[in-house]
Specification:
alpha+beta, 4-stranded antiparallel beta sheet, 4 strands
Length: 99
């Protein structure tokens, strides 16, 4: 059991389109993968300890089982996902396992 953190940015000026796609298309697609059980999204707050933050959005997905199983299942399903060109393509993904 663990969490997968996905940091992303929309293309400049396309936040509304990006957010609509992420909430209405992408998260539901990821949650069809059996290992992924929940998701939450966040926007970067204006107040920061360190001013230079490269990503404006964060999605946190909960997964069941091992990180290996979650990654393998996600990679297998990802070819069927409908991606949006409103996302700028720079993505950072990190998985954490429960201690």
């Amino acid at each position: 059991m663990g969490q997968m953190l996905v940091y992303t940015n929309p293309v400049d000026g396309r936040d509304a389109e990006y957010n609509r796609w992420y909430d209405e298309v992408h998260i539901p697609e990821v949650l069809t993968v059996a290992e992924f059980t929940a998701a939450k999204r966040f926007r970067l707050a204006d107040a920061q300890v360190f001013a230079d933050q490269p990503f404006r959005y964060l999605a946190i997905y909960e997964y069941a089982g091992t990180a290996d199983a979650a990654v393998n299942a996600l990679m297998k399903a990802s070819s069927t996902f409908e991606m949006s060109d409103a996302m700028d393509g720079t993505t950072h993904v990190v998985l954490f396992e429960e201690r």
